[in-house]
Specification:
Chain lengths: 310, 180
């Protein structure tokens, strides 16, 4: 097994073999989460700082639980409670945290590229927990893990990703990851939410949702990010739900055993009807459960790479 | 580096050693009740399966079989870098059981230390006993085996290879001496 990444900044930097290594490692760690005593000593003595400049419940909690189950010390810093609100720059914040010698910094930031910026300037490992509209690698990896768990293999699957592609770092990481693993990716959303030229990254583009989900193996719905876009990109939520919401009827167009996935948090009645969100094809809570195992694998794998290596 | 190879045990030799260990386990534990075998990946798990088959042949009753991976319990993550972590699969409760921990080669004892930590995280066995096919000495921790297939005095730079055949049965044990 060869894993030479000190940082996990994006799926784009990972090879297919790296992804398989991460998923296989996560497979081994998953068993810990069902034990009575959910703790192994693997990362004892390591310090992990969760540095979150954007709000997050799922991802931050998932990274924190992953670190704690591996016996690392985890510390959470959120923007509202930090010196960011007092005017400190990202670099100064990072240097101050680095002076306390953490081994891994898990960062979420509203600016695309913030994690790369940090990784170039400090010695700790950096794991990207979402940077702007760029990448969210741990989410894509847990999506792959969940698909592999239910479908056996990712190669050859047809995956429809539907919603606000333009603002979605999840869509971008999933697109890179699925292409590397040999799946076919369809992207679908209103024209205002589709980045120009995205088909060059290897995806089929749809504006008609029915066409996008026809015979798909996986339907991945994205959250409408009301906090990011104001009101300029879509007229009303009701109209959006009608054209780009997944419900019992249009789900029938997908394969009968198609999986319904969502990175959360879901807007019930907007991108997902409640019947679908709670229906038999949804694997949304499996995604959350698998997220802990995948993040354990990431923390473990970056810890094995010597400081100073890239 | 080139190695000179000596066969320490051939297939029938391994088989006789395992049969004797199976008898000893049954004698010491007075049968199979409350007994379970757990092998350490990736050699001990296959030997544990062979021991369970023999125990079943002798007693007519089987004992539960599990496998653990000690990758997550190593004490040398910093110096060795990331090692592959395999699956731990113990489909029964360890509480109150007499656990036979099985490994292929006993050397420094660090693997066994890690394996005992792993077992204790899964439950509270009544006893943990250690069965190994080869004891090659050089212990660094106060650990000794309860059941040994063969004691093989070695120097530190020699290696021991346990070869398994396509059916996952131990077929040969070789001693490799460095040459030149």
């Amino acid at each position: 097994m060869e894993f030479r990444h000190k940082h996990i900044l994006g799926i784009n930097e990972l090879s297919r073999d790296d992804i398989v290594t991460i998923l296989d490692t996560a497979d081994s760690f998953k068993e810990i989460n069902s034990r009575d005593i959910k703790k192994v000593p693997t990362l004892r003595g390591k310090t992990i700082v969760n540095l979150f400049f954007e709000s997050s419940t799922r991802t931050r909690t998932s990274f924190e639980i992953a670190g704690k189950r591996l016996s690392a010390d985890t510390i959470n810093i959120t923007a509202s409670s930090s010196s960011v609100t007092k005017g400190e720059t990202l670099e100064d914040t990072a240097r101050n945290i680095e002076a306390m010698n953490p081994d891994i910094i898990v960062m979420r930031h509203a600016a695309s590229g913030a994690c790369h910026y940090l990784a170039e300037r400090i010695n700790s490992s950096v794991i990207n927990a979402g940077d702007g509209a760029h990448e969210h690698p741990s989410q894509a990896l847990l999506d792959l893990f969940t698909m592999r768990q239910h479908k056996g293999s990712i190669e050859g699957l047809t995956v429809a990703i539907i919603g606000d592609i333009g603002h979605s770092r999840v869509a971008r990481s999933d697109l890179y990851a699925l292409n590397k693993m040999g799946a076919k990716v369809r992207l679908c959303g209103p024209g205002t939410m589709m980045p120009v030229g995205i088909e060059q990254l290897g995806a089929e583009i749809f504006t008609d949702m029915n066409e996008a989900i026809r015979d798909a193996d996986v339907v991945m719905m994205l959250r409408i990010q009301l906090e990011r876009q104001g009101k300029t990109l879509l007229p009303t939520l009701r109209e959006y739900a009608r054209f780009y919401g997944l419900n019992v009827n249009n789900l029938k167009l997908a394969k009968p055993d198609a999986l319904v996935m969502h990175p959360g948090p879901i807007n019930r009645g907007v991108e997902l009807s409640s019947y679908v969100a709670d229906g038999p094809q949804n694997v949304i809570l499996d995604q959350v459960e698998n997220g802990v195992a995948v993040r354990m694998a990431l923390l473990y794998l970056v810890s094995g790479v010597e400081r100073g290596e890239v | 580096m080139t190695y000179g190879t000596t066969t320490i045990l051939d297939g029938p030799g391994v088989g006789r050693a395992l049969t004797r260990i199976a008898h000893e386990i049954l004698e010491c534990n007075k049968g199979v009740s409350n007994l379970a075998l757990v092998g350490i990946r990736s050699g001990g798990d296959r030997l544990a399966a062979e021991l369970v088959r023999r125990i079943e042949q002798i007693e007519g009753k089987s004992a539960p079989l599990g496998a653990i991976d000690i990758g997550m319990y190593r004490d040398d993550l910093a110096s060795r870098g990331t090692v592959e972590v395999g699956r731990t699969d113990v489909p029964f409760s360890l509480d109150g059981k007499n656990i036979i921990l099985v490994d292929d080669v006993l050397f420094t004892g660090r693997t066994i230390r890690a394996a005992m930590d792993a077992l204790i995280d899964l439950g509270r066995p009544r006893t943990i006993q250690l069965a190994v096919l080869i004891d090659r000495g050089h212990r660094e921790l106060p650990i000794r085996p309860d059941y040994v297939g063969r004691n093989v005095p070695t120097s530190r730079d020699e290696k021991i290879d346990v070869i398994f055949n396509a059916d996952n049965c131990a077929a040969e044990v070789r001693l490799l001496k460095p040459q030149g």
